[in-house]
Structures are given as C-alpha cells and as structure tokens.
Amino acid sequence: MTSLKPMRSIGVTFFAAMLGLLFVAGFVTPASAQDEPAVGPKPPVPFRNTESHVGDITGHSADGKLPYRRYCAGCHGDYGDANGENAVWLDPKPRDFTIATFKCRSTLTGTLPTDQDLFNTIGRGLTNSNMPIWNTFSKQERADLVAYIKIFSPRWEKEKAGVPITVPAEPPVTLESISHGQALFAKLECWKCHGLHGEGDGPSASTLTDSKDNPIRPFNFAAAGNDSRFKCGSTNQDIYKIFMTGVDGTPMPSFADVIQPNDAWDLVHFLRTLQVHRKSRENDILMAAHGVIPPYVEKKTGSLAPAASANEKVPGGGQ
Amino acid sequence: MSNKRFSLVLMMVLVASSAMFAGTVSGKVTYTGTPAHMKPIDMSKEPSCAKQHPTPITSETVVTGANDALDNVVVYISSGAPDDGQIPTQAITYVQKGCQYIPHVLAMHVDQEFAIANDDQTSHNIHPHPTVNIEWNLSQQAGSPPIKKQYDKPEFIPVQCNIHPWMHGWFAVLKTSHYDVSKDGGDFKLPNLPPGKYTITAWHESYGTQTADVTISGNETKEVNFSFKAKPY
Questions:
Q1: Which residues, in sequence order, are CB contacts of A176 under 8 Å at separation 6+?
Q2: What is the β-pairing status of strands B226-229 and B23-32?
Q3: A109/B contact by beta carbon, under 8 A
C-alpha cells in the first residue's frame, strides 16, 4: 500500500506535465497567434420584415426564410450572394440578390422588378439554366420567397419597383408585319449577336460576357424542343417585354427608347418565325407563303428606311 | 476656334480666381518601366468604323506621350476640400465615334447629368458595369438623340459596348468638383483651391492609385507630379 503512493504521485505529476505540455503546444500557442480568426461563419444577414404583394396575396419575409434556406440557398447562398455550395458548378451563374439586378422584368432597365415579375420567375424557372420550375410551391410560398430575397439588398429599402411598361394590344399577324420585323432585325443589328438566322452565332456572339465577366451565349431562337423557350416567358407579350426592357446583367440592352410600340409587335412576329422548330401563327402564315418573307417596302413616313433583308450586312455607306 | 475661346475663358477664370487668392495645383503624370504593348484593334467586322481609321487604332488602356507622359489619369482632391455640393454646370458628353469612346475617361461630379451620343452609322449598346451604382444597359441607334444619365454615388465605372467588344471606357464619378484628367502629355491642373491642406489622388485604370499631400497657403501654384510604375502586361 505504502509503496504505491510514490508511484501514484509520480504518475500524477507526469500526467499533469503532459497535460501542461499538450495545453501549451496544442491550445495556447495557436490561440495566441490567431488574434482575428480568418475563418468561421459570416455574420448573418440582418433580418428585416419585408412584404410582397402579388394579386391579393401578401408574402412575408419571415415565412420565406425557411423555404429559402431549404430550397434556394444551395445555389443562391445563405447570404443571397450567389455563392451557394452548388454555384461553382453552374453556368449561367445563379442570381446575386445582393446587387438586385434581375433579368426578367416588366420594368425599364436599371429599375427594380415588380413583385409579380419575381413571382412569375420563380414559378416559370429559367430555361437553359439550372433554375427549375418551382411550381411545387404554393402561391403563398412563392410570394413569401419574393419578400424574403428583398432582405439581401438595401435597394429594396430605398427604391420602389419600376413602373411596368405598357404593352399595346397586339395587331394581327400578317406577312407584312413579319417582313417589317425582319427589316427591324437587320436595322437594329440584333443579328450582331443573335446571328442572321437567330441561331445565336452573330459576329459578336463569341465575345459576350455577363456583368460578372462570365462568358454568356446569346439566345438561339432556332433551338429545338424546350431550349427554344424564352427565358422570361413564352407568350408574344413576354417577347415584347424582353427586348423592350432588356435583360439586365447580360449584354442584352433595352430597346425601349429605340422602337415604336407598333414596330415592336412586327419584330415579335418576325422573331417567332426564327423559331423554326416551334409551331406558331407566324410560322403558319409564313408557310402559307412558301416560307418566303417579301422584302420590306416602307409605307408610312417616320418609320425605318427600307432595310435590306437580314442576309445582307447593313450598308455602312454615307448618307 | 472653340478651343481658343475656351482657353480665353479659362484665362479669365484664372485671372478672376487669382484675384480671390486661390491656389492651383498643376503637374504632370509620368510612368516608369515599359508599358504593355497596346494591340491594334481589328474593326473589320464593323466596316463603317474601320474606314474612319486609315491606320488602325490601338486599345486605350495605357495612353502615353513624349517624355514618359501618361494620359487618361484622373487627378482629384480626395480629402481636405469638403464637397461643396456644387455640380458643375457645363454640359459633358461621351461620344461614340469610330467605334471608340471619346473621351476614353469621362470625369464627372456625383449627380451631374451627362449625355451619351452616337456619331456612328452603326448602333451601339452602352453598358456601364457599376457595383455601387445601378446597372442599366441601353441600345442606341445611329442618328438617335443623346441619352441623358447621371450617377448618385462616387465610383469608377467601366463602360463597355457588347456589340463591339473592343470598345472600353470609364466613367469617373467623383464627390468633388476639383478634378482633371491628364491629357496632352500627362498634364493636369486643379485651379481655384482655397488655402488648406489637401490630399490629391491620381487614378489610372490599369496602374491603380497614388496620393500626394499638398498645402495651399494663398495665391500660389504648387507643382505635384505623379509617377506610376508601368505593368509590362
């Protein structure tokens, strides 16, 4: 019994010394070297109560938080900064909600979209990207998500959403309107990026980058199947809005100051005929004319000069 | 002619300001080392622009002059002079001509309206890439009226035309009315400075920023020179 005592005390001393060493080596030194930890969780985005109004539904950011973190944060990130864990694998990149620049708007370029625009985008998804069609959400959930993504950018506190552009009633599709649309396609130089036949292979196509300097492709109208769906909606009204308001964050500019409303409808009719794999009124009318678009002849004054067909480069000569 | 008139006005302003005991900072921006070779631009995809340049122009990221002068450097008072909030009234225009931005760097005051004009026979899209200001992207056809815009926060904003990818320029939005862009051999001049201590910042799109402190004590002209280290590529 007595002989065990010193043994024990030696053991205890040794153990204490080892513990001390371990403490010094393992804890104290690195902890003192790390005055400001460079790693670790970011501070959370300060939560705000925001609302969205879609029809008679009111969305609340408090209710949007859970579905956002469950379904959206994987790509758009916990902080809404497009740095979710999947983002590196995606092309095109997810939207960065901290800068509040949105592609699909009914409002002019540089303005915030309406709640309805964002609501529609969530339900529609974005063709040719990894944003799925979220029609599994109820309308209330979608409205809540619209409210929630507003907490990421201070722009939503300072600015109101833009005023939706007015889209006049669509005139009937005629061979003439298609022909005028083709002249506009040449005159407005849509083909510089989208290509003479809308195949997304224009002379500038290979140089395009989005606002974060990632390469981006112009829309290929002639794509088959689902790829021929427009990003921001599939009706003629949606096409009208896309080129009038522009696709912010991408090279696609706004043409609202450039095209007269009726001319814009003619352009819509022509763009439909570029969708060669898609059935449409426009394609039916063109087929009835054996697929030949007659050259555009100027009628009214103040309209465009009779531009050559899109197959000829725009004359660069003097006036 | 208009230049002469402008310099006359400038002289009158200088005379008037010297009467008010205001100081001037002037100087020259130079570089050391060998700047990157500026490649000639191939505009063959835009014939109407290509024929305006019998000898191909080069990109304007670095524009140098004789005696190692460096142009397109924004020189401005970054501290010392509280912003008096006076927005310069003269009209400023950013012209697209020959598929080039003229001037390459447009300096302006916060909230100052500027016009964007298209003198070409082709259409352009004006696509500035701000990060703190609001991004927009507009198409401008040949012969259409100037677009009027302004920015409400100070920022150096790169400008791009997506249709003609070689077109690059800058908007320098500043929260001071004392600024100049070095030109004609790297010269700059900041007139009408009341007595005080100032920090002057020089910004170049590729070489970064430099600062210098200067004290103005009455009616005098102080010389401040900046020298940037050139990047070889």
A1: A294
A2: parallel
A3: yes
B48 falls within a domain: no
CB of B152 within 8 Å of a chain A CB? The answer is no
Q: Which of B59, B120, B138 to probe by mutation at the A interface, max A CB count within 10 Å?
A: B138
B163 in A contact zone (CB under 8 Å): yes
Q: Do B134 and A155 touch (CB under 8 A)?
A: yes
The domain made up of A175-288 has a fold known as: Cytochrome Bc1 Complex; Chain D, domain 2 (1.10.760)
Q: Same structural domain for residues B102 and B214?
A: no
Classify residue B51: in a domain, yes or no: no
Nearest residue on chain B to A100, alpha-carbon basis: B134
Query: Which domain covers residue B102, as residue numbers?
Result: 82-177
Rounded Cα distance between B173 and B156, Å, is: 6
Burial of A62 (0-12, 13-18, 19+ CB in 10 A): middle
With respect to residue B65, please indicate whether it lies within any of the assigned structural domains: yes
Q: Assess whether B156 and B185 both reside in one domain.
A: no
| Domain ranges (residues) in chain A | 51-158, 175-288
CB contact under 8 Å between B127 and A207, yes or no, is: no
Task: Tell me if chain A has a CB within 8 Å of the CB of B135.
Answer: yes
Our count of domains for chain B comes to 2
Report CB contact under 8 Å: B135, A99.
Answer: yes
CATH architecture of A51-158: Orthogonal Bundle (1.10)
Q: Which of A120, A117, A123, A121 is nearest to A161 (CA)?
A: A117
Q: How many CB atoms are closer than 10 A to CB A85?
A: 11
**Under an 8 A CB cutoff, do B163 and A314 touch?**
no
Q: What is the pTM of this model?
A: 0.80
- B46 contact residues in A (CB cutoff 8 A): 316
Contact, B181 vs B72, CB < 8 A? yes
The nearest alpha carbon in chain A to B165 belongs to: A207
Amino acid at site A170: E
pLDDT, one tens digit for every residue, chain A (319 residues): 444 444 555 555 555 555 444 444 444 444 444 455 556 666 777 899 999 999 999 999 999 999 999 999 999 999 999 999 999 999 999 999 999 999 999 999 999 999 999 999 999 999 889 999 998 999 999 999 999 999 999 999 999 999 999 999 999 999 999 999 999 999 999 999 999 999 999 999 999 999 889 999 999 999 988 788 899 998 999 999 999 999 999 999 999 999 998 899 999 999 999 999 999 999 999 999 998 999 998 765 444 544 444 444 444 333 3
Q: ipTM for the complex?
A: 0.79
